[in-house]
Automatic annotation (TrEMBL):
GO MF annotations in UniProt: hydrolase activity; metal ion binding
Name the record gives this protein: Metallo-beta-lactamase domain-containing protein
Keyword Chloroplast: no
Keyword Cell inner membrane: no
Organism annotation: Oleoguttula mirabilis
Protein keywords: Hydrolase, Metal-binding, Zinc
Cofactor(s) this protein requires: Zn(2+)
One Pfam family per UniProt: Lactamase_B
InterPro entries with a match to the protein in the record: MBL_superfamily_lactonases, Metallo-B-lactamas, RibonucZ/Hydroxyglut_hydro
């Protein structure tokens, strides 16, 4: 049965609605062979792309306070500024993604805009691939927020295509790391069951979303497929104005627009794979995003994926201290 059009609508602004400001941050660059990511690619074509990060500033609910105090959140951390900070197996993989450009990294981008890494309260990591985890030690005051199952992946890997040696189980300080609860509570680990701060609920056509600040301004969306724990973020920046941060829901905007598909290639085990752990689930998450955009009506949604070189080139004024 087709989903009703009302199912796609985002919630209207409430009385005294809080809006956030978002600024892009530089997080380094890496080089991707297009044939591994999109269908009908030129076999030898490679593109050097950014790994974008974003600063989200959430004002506290006291409009008379001037200037208003802020909670500062970063979504994704890009690349480490020192490749030796990666595990040996990660470094071997990175050799296949050359050239890489490590500067400016997120910490340097913050300083250039007038903030220090110690000013950051929370860091939401879309997922724990090497080009999104950055340098957590730069943020001694921050809480790290990761999707359900992420801590297990960091310690044990994610199956034969994602062995444990391409992750670092000590990537984040465990005493300051908060793993979101699983969407299916029946699969909750003991650690996850202790987390009661957030509850999943439907938002528009997404079956599982978390109201991060409890005021409808920032939502974390469960977007399975790319790797265990992959999440996206949807933020309210003005009246019927939203920004959707897509992480690695796809790696090229041609896929989002339906001009290309997700590439499949030999998995080395007699089968086919894509860059996603679960290609069907990734396609479902991407389809939800496309449908949300299609049926948004009065809501304007700016969608930015992590490796969108064209967006970066078109929008230098939206990098911190500029804003979206």
């Amino acid at each position: 049965m087709a989903m009703s059009e009302t199912s796609f609508q985002l919630p209207p602004a409430g009385e005294g609605q809080v809006y956030v400001t978002i600024s892009a941050l530089q997080g380094g660059h890496l080089t991707l062979p297009e044939a591994l990511f999109i269908t009908d690619a030129e076999p030898e074509k490679r593109a050097t792309v950014p790994s974008l990060s974003f600063l989200i500033q959430h004002p506290h609910k006291h409009p008379s306070e001037q200037p208003p105090s802020m909670t500062r959140l970063i979504f994704d951390l890009g690349l480490k500024r020192d490749l030796t900070g990666y595990a040996p197996a990660q470094q071997h993989h990175i050799l296949q993604r050359q050239p890489v450009n490590l500067k400016p990294d997120v910490a340097e981008s913050l300083r250039a805009g007038g903030l220090h890494p110690t000013d950051i309260d929370d860091i939401v990591v879309s997922h724990v691939h090497w080009d999104h985890i950055g340098t957590p030690s730069d943020f001694p005051n921050s809480r790290f927020v990761v999707g359900a199952g992420t801590l297990h992946v960091l310690e044990h890997g994610g199956g034969p295509l994602y062995p444990a040696n391409i992750f670092n189980k000590n990537e984040f300080p465990l005493d300051r790391t908060y793993e979101l609860p699983p969407v299916d509570s029946s699969t909750a680990t003991i650690a996850a069951k202790r987390q009661t701060e957030h509850q999943w609920r439907p938002l528009a056509n997404f079956p599982a979303a978390l109201d991060y600040f409890g005021d409808g301004s920032v939502w974390i969306l469960d977007t399975p497929g790319h790797i265990t724990g992959h999440v996206n973020l949807l933020a309210r920046t003005g009246v019927r104005q939203w920004v959707y941060l897509g992480g690695d829901c796809c790696h090229d905007t041609r896929i989002l627009r339906g001009e290309s598909g997700i590439a499949m290639y030999d998995d080395g085990r007699g089968g086919q794979r894509s860059v996603h752990m679960d290609t069907d689930a990734a396609k479902t998450s991407l389809s939800r995003l496309r449908e949300l955009i299609k049926h948004a009506k009065e809501d304007k949604i700016e969608v930015i994926i992590a490796h969108d070189k064209q967006w970066m080139e078109r929008n230098p004024h939206k990098f911190f201290p500029g804003k979206l």
